[in-house]
Design a protein that fits this description.
The complex is a heterotrimer of chains A (335), B (153) and C (379). By secondary structure, chain A is α/β, with parallel strands linked by helices. Chain A contains 15 helices and 15 strands. In chain A, helix 9 packs parallel to helix 10. By secondary structure, chain C is α/β, with parallel strands linked by helices. The chains are: A alpha/beta (335), B alpha/beta (153), C alpha/beta (379).
């Protein structure tokens, strides 16, 4: 039986819609979701590949005994850190925070070195801006925001871009390009930035860059690498890379909720005595984990994400599953 | 398929044209049974023709796909030449008919990407036609010299 | 080939369906008699702008597919090919869907004996997101209040919940960059004559569907549905047939005019410089079916270092593979994250191929495009 269902793309914080194709109860492919206001049916390669997580998900195991083992280990542990990320839904993040707070665990939340902004530019603001300042290869890394930058250019805007490498599509559409450092870029273009400008960025070099951005009087739009980082920022305090390293240095037991932290941070995780992972499919972090508890993939869960421009988007499970959600895992951990 | 198109100038005296435009790169895809033989004949008879052509031998012109031509242009060829057997002489009966149909598509596509039609040429040359191979190469080289090096968009 | 006017004998269907409700009735007949395992048709999911291909196996669920949706630029050819090839199915198909199905039949990816195609005449589709913006800008209506839309006599007409209608000339909308998708604007195949039957309202009286019966299987469909008591037919009068022909003629003439304007712009396309090599255009293309065996996946074409890729080594290769079979469905435009007008060059190349060979993708008779012919002929 063929079925097409709406869902949200989990591969970055843009919040694109995507349809998944179900055939005989299995997810077999994606289909454009042309009605979705964010992306009008356009999805990048990451988005279309995001169903691979479902295809490669862990097989069913005796979850209860695994969670029992984790609980036992936690009982006698000190210096426990919980890693939470934008891969989790709002509801899950709230549950994780409550869990960590009640147990007195520290929370490690990393959002690409970026921070929360109360007010951010909307995607339409980019299209209507007179000048767009871009930090990072947005066209390649977040193509559906990149598309808005292209629209801005077509509407007559001037594009200024900073990208690490010179050969990039973002450079190709930019009027002025910089590639030395974010700080120098901001210094160089700072005088040009006014209220009709929008600054879009998905990376910075150092914390000082954030201060420089704060000093600008234009709309800003940080774009994160995870679907719900913006939502998580509303609940948790983000840590910079250095702060994360410091936290990990003082960690004895690490609980990772659906985050490939080992891939993201260059840290010697062998210094941590125990790592427990709650993840839907294998990644670098599950490789180094002592116990891996399989949880629902994004296609199997309901919830809400907040996209980069601060809009809350709800989505329903595309497919039923017996796997536990993060919330159910936490209930079990609480006993 | 990796084509090394970095060209080192061979010493060929008395060939003014070459000295003027020896940077031109021509890729020649030649059918084993006819045109490759034609090139051989030209060589054996010590006929002089522009050395800019890098020959790739294929078993039949019918084996050549448009992608090969495009790949050659992408890798830096300024012109691509395809040589096959005369119509009716194909070693595999109808390979050259197939190629001839395909070649039209190649022409149509090249044009749309701003690559001049003249940069792509194909000709039927038999193994005995060393002279024809030589003159074709000279003509092609002359055409390309006029067009200059290809600048891809 | 013959013409009939048809009307559903089922009141609910007649009310819910477009014109005479013939399409839904025929689908119901096919399901009820067990002639097909299922029906693939478009139904609105969230609202009228959200047409989603829906597979129906129970005729009671058919009602949700009744009616026509102009803001649903979907493609069903590849769905049939990928997921329904082993089933007996009936599908509703716009001309581009039908052309894609025909090209896939030629490629032995769809079994002609397994599929009934109910063709739908089509004047073009409107992209949903831009369509809503258009209604917001050019109509005095809230896009959310629209319950149905229609394209008639050169106008895009919306109907609101209170029964009132508003119309704006398509020409005016398209001048402003809205209206139909650009590939629809230049599409010159308005009636899917490769389908078993082609249905529509052109030339039809109010409350009737005008059907062109294209082959024996189509005739059997009509006869069967009549015998089952779900369809009523009558012969159209000559002026009706003439009227329909006129509508088609005008549309094609308009399309050709737009073609003449659009095709010369292909050489000026400089949008390739923002291609991010995401392969969305290839993956969505109903004609491309090699998947992981695609030549572009081969190591010598896979060029991850080079983004944007050289157009000749990316689109050029795709063009050489299938441009002669391009059915101008515009899916590649729709899914390109960078808004590159991909379909234009493919469509232009198919037209060039037509000039050389007379082959129209998905329309011409014959077993294969001439490029694949074993004949000893030159072009």
């Amino acid at each position: 039986m063929l079925e097409i269902k709406h869902t949200l793309c989990p591969s970055c914080s843009v919040g694109c819609g995507i349809n998944v194709v179900l055939n005989d109860g299995e997810i077999v492919g994606t289909f454009p979701y042309k009605r979705h206001p964010v992306n009008a049916g356009k999805n990048c390669l990451n988005g279309r590949n995001s169903i691979d997580c479902y295809k490669n998900k862990f097989e069913d195991v005796d979850v209860d005994s695994l969670i029992g083992d984790v609980s036992k280990a936690l009982n006698s542990a000190s210096d426990v850190t919980v890693i939470c990320s934008g891969n989790n839904t709002i509801e899950e993040i709230e549950a994780i925070k409550e869990f960590a707070d009640s147990k007195g665990y520290k929370i490690g939340f990393y959002a690409d070195n970026l921070k929360n902004y109360e007010e951010v530019a909307s995607y339409e603001d980019i299209e209507n801006a007179e000048k767009v300042f871009v930090i990072g290869d947005l066209l390649y890394e977040n193509p559906l925001i990149g598309r808005r930058i292209v629209h801005a250019k077509q509407n007559g805007a001037k594009i200024f871009a900073f990208v690490n490498s010179e050969a990039s599509v973002t450079f190709n559409i930019a009027d002025e390009c910089f590639n030395d450092s974010v700080g120098e870029f901001l210094d160089a273009v700072g005088n040009n930035i006014d209220e009709s400008s929008v600054l879009v960025f998905n990376q910075i070099d150092a914390a000082e860059d954030l201060d420089k951005i704060d000093a600008l009087n234009c709309k800003v739009l940080p774009v994160f690498s995870k679907s719900n980082s913006k939502g998580a920022l509303g609940i948790l305090e983000p840590k910079s890379k250095e702060e994360m390293f410091e936290l990990l240095d003082n960690t004895d037991v690490l609980l990772v909720f659906n985050d490939d932290i080992a891939d993201e941070l260059e840290f010697d995780f062998s210094k941590i005595s125990k790592i427990f992972s709650f993840a839907p499919c294998a990644d670098e972090t599950t490789e180094i984990s002592e116990i891996v508890v399989p949880i629902k993939t994004w296609l199997e869960k309901d919830g809400s994400f907040v996209n980069a421009m601060g809009e809350t988007q709800n989505f329903n499970a595309a497919i039923e599953s017996d796997a536990l959600s993060v919330i159910e895992v936490i209930e079990k951990l609480n006993g | 398929m990796v084509l090394n198109l970095r060209y080192t100038v061979q010493k060929k005296p008395n060939y003014e044209v070459i000295l003027m435009s020896d940077e031109l790169k021509i890729v020649g895809l030649l059918c084993n049974w006819c045109c490759y033989g034609g090139a051989d004949t030209a060589g054996t008879a010590r006929m002089q023709y522009p050395p800019n052509v890098r020959i790739i031998r294929v078993m039949c012109s019918g084996r050549i796909t448009p992608s090969m031509i495009f790949k050659a242009f992408q890798e830096g060829a300024d012109g691509v030449f395809v040589g096959g057997c005369h119509i009716g002489d194909c070693h595999y009966d109808a390979g050259n008919y197939k190629w001839s149909r395909r070649s039209k598509i190649v022409e149509d596509i090249l044009e749309e990407f701003g690559i001049e039609r003249e940069r792509f040429r194909h000709e039927w040359i038999s193994a005995s036609e060393g002279e024809k191979f030589k003159t074709t190469m000279e003509e092609f080289h002359k055409t390309l010299s006029k067009l200059g090096p290809l600048e891809l968009k | 080939m013959s013409y009939v006017l048809a009307k559903s004998q089922n009141d609910d269907i007649h009310k819910a369906g477009e014109c005479g409700g013939a399409v839904t009735s025929i689908l119901k007949y096919l399901l009820d008699e067990g002639i097909v395992d299922g029906v693939l048709a478009i139904s609105p999911c969230d609202d009228v702008y959200d047409g989603v291909p829906t597979f129906v196996t129970n005729s009671e669920d058919l009602m949700k597919t009744a009616g026509s949706y102009h803001c649903a630029p979907t493609m069903i050819g590849d769905l049939v090919q990928k997921y329904l090839f082993d089933k007996k199915v009936a599908v509703t198909a716009k001309p581009c869907d039908m052309r894609a199905i025909e090209e896939l039949i030629i490629r032995h990816k769809i079994d002609k004996d397994n599929i009934y195609v109910i063709g739908l005449n089509c004047g073009g589709t409107v992209p949903p997101v831009a369509g809503r913006k258009m209604i917001d800008l050019f109509y005095e209506a809230n896009p959310d209040d629209v319950v149905s839309e229609e394209i008639d006599k050169g106008q895009f007409i919306i109907e609101l919940a209170d029964g009132s209608e508003e119309a704006v000339k398509i020409h005016d909308l398209e001048k402003e960059g809205y209206g139909r998708r650009t590939n629809c604007q230049r599409c010159d195949v308005k009636i899917p004559r490769k389908a078993n039957i082609a249905c529509g309202n052109w030339g039809a009286e109010d409350g009737w569907t005008f059907i062109e019966i294209n082959d024996e299987k189509g005739q059997e469909l009509i006869d069967g549905a009549k015998k089952a008591g779900i369809l009523e037919t009558k012969s159209p009068a000559d002026p009706a047939i003439e009227g329909r022909k006129k509508v088609e003629g005008i549309m094609i003439k308009m399309a050709k005019k737009i073609q003449d304007k659009m095709y010369p712009t292909v050489n000026e396309i400089d949008d390739w410089n923002r291609c991010i090599s995401c392969y969305a255009c290839r993956d969505v293309c109903p004609i491309c079916w090699c998947y992981e065996n695609c030549e572009l996946n081969k190591s010598f074409f896979k060029d991850e270092q080079n983004i944007p890729p050289s157009p000749i080594a990316f689109q050029g290769v795709r063009l050489s593979h299938m441009s002669f079979s391009c059915v101008d469905c515009g899916q590649c435009d729709d899914v390109c994250p960078m808004d590159i007008p991909v379909s234009l060059i493919f469509d232009k190349l198919q037209k060039k191929y037509f000039d050389r060979t007379g082959y129209v993708a998905g329309v011409s008779d014959g077993t294969k495009p001439p490029l694949y012919s074993p004949e000893k002929t030159e072009l």
